[in-house]
Amino acid sequence: MKVFKTLALSALLATSAAPVSAAEQTLLNSSYDIARELFADYNPLFAAHWQEKTGESVTIKQSHGGSSAQARAIMQGLQADVVTFNQVTDVQVLYDRGKLIDKNWKENFPNSSSPYYSTTAFLVRKGNPKNIENWDDLAKDDVASVFPNPKTSGNARYTYLAALGYAQKAFGKDNTEQQDQFLKQLLANVAVFDTGGRGATTSFVERGIGDVLVTFESEVNNIRQQYGSDKYDIVVPKTSILAEFPVAVVERNAKRNGTTELATEYLSYLYSEKAQRLLADFNYRVHHPDVVKDNADRFPEVELLTVEAIAGSWDQAMKTHFASGGKLDQLQRR
Amino acid sequence: MPWAARQQRVLPGFGISLGVSLLFISLILLLPASGLIMQTSQMSWQEYWFAITDPRIVASYKVTAGAALIASLLNGVIGLLFAWVLVRYNFTGKRFVDALVDLPFALPTAVAGVTLATLYADNGWIGSVLANVGIQVAYTPLGIVIAMMFTSLPFVVRTVQPVLEEISQEEEEAGTVLGASDSAVFWRIILPTIKPALLVGVALSFTRSLGEFGAVIFIAGNMPYVSEITSLMIFVRLQEFDFPAASAIASVILMASLSLLFAINLWQGRYLKRIHGR
Questions:
Q1: Tens digit of each residue's pLDDT (9 = 90 or more) over B194-208
Q2: Is A229 exposed, middle or buried (0-12, 13-18, 19+ CB in 10 A)?
Q3: What is the dihedral angle through the alpha carbons of A176, A181, A183, A185, rounded to the nearest 10 degrees?
Q4: I need a surface site. Which of A86, A279, B152, B255 has the fewest CB within 10 A?
Q5: Which of A68, A72, A191 is nearest residue B139 as measured by Cβ atoms?
Q6: Transmembrane segments in this chain: where (chain B) (predicted)?
């Protein structure tokens, strides 16, 4: 009881003390589920930079969840100042449905407002017993794969589109019949459709389900570091997809909170060398030339197809493939 | 309200207490329900029909209702047994077991789901044993049944228990003395008395299972047309930012649960009337 009292008292003090030190600004970063550790490391880096630049200290709060769910929360009133998502559509929806961000948000920062990127890769069990080297191996009869449900996970939408991109190259862009056949088989081989990327990781690693986990290359590397290189091997297919991690200032919230300048700086500092090194440490691919050179051996050369090249645009991809009654629904129909 | 004021009550103020009750019912039950109706009212009938009859959704109704039916029936048997043991026998740790029955209510369902998935996976404690005899539980419809049974078992136990406690042993003894076999005593004396409570428990267990989400999705495997539950389909529609379609599917579950509860209430009323003549 006493502990509770002190807690309540200190909480009260904290809230009442906040307006006094007006120099202290707060920033809320709304991000995707598996970026928790990344931003926990980035925030102190940025806070030091901001202190040096302006002499002010800053408190950065993090909010994590599936990025579609986060976008929904912001539309319903979550006061996030910036978003750092893993899918363009989840940012775009903030403009389309609520005019919460700038119309030309993609041009506000370099590289289409994506400070880092990744691709889709495979994690297989040690020694690669099923000999999985490329996308076509995932459609073989005796291979069970694990990736989340494309309906609920941006991560899995990249997987689906990467497989489609491979099929377009292998069978010809117009040969939709063979592409469909391939995708159908690949989808039928999925052992568990978890609702998110971390769930799929748990199914593959903890529960021992399936022969191959298909997820972001960054996640594949993190798992291998965490669970040991003696248990898993990494396979990066020769052809894969460019998975961008877009960022944007939620202008309406930032304006109200008086954090526009801070929010903008928070995102542009992601392009600095220090931040890019940190991102590379978390196994993301980055743009800074020096950092790229230093990490060349860790990120194999891969042909990265863009969503635009595979499906026209994200908007188009959502409509034709992932909307209800779309291609994905048809391919999974029984 | 003279008929209420006529008698001295322990708690005074019939008017105000009824008012407060109605206010809370409105805020907590009716407001969300009307919000749901408002969301769906943005759709035309055709859109509504299209949203709720998508083949994948229909498949999920079958999986959900089928698994809920099996789970609640099994719970009827197991719950009755549980209640019987708790009422009729004395053993050490009885109070602990009694408290344990409520665990599924106290535990966040997501925790239950993760735990069950761990136990029943092919490399889990229970799953590895079952896998030896060729039964796979996790990531199949069977897993859904298990998860639903877990979260809704207390309903049966807690509705049957007090009724069992009230049955006087004299009736049973009378039956035995008059030469009835044990099974006849059970079928003709015990079962008729607890039948309404048992049925209500099973029905509550069924309606709860219809809406269960957290515990199920971790163990279901979520394969389209095989092990996708309706609540997951609502979640999927929300992820697509298709709020009206999500509400439309939710309204189907709401209506199913409401009509079932209503039917049970009606039946129970009639049954009690027959028994007690009031």
A1: 988 999 999 999 999
A2: exposed
A3: 180
A4: B255
A5: A191
A6: 12-38, 65-87, 99-121, 133-157, 243-267
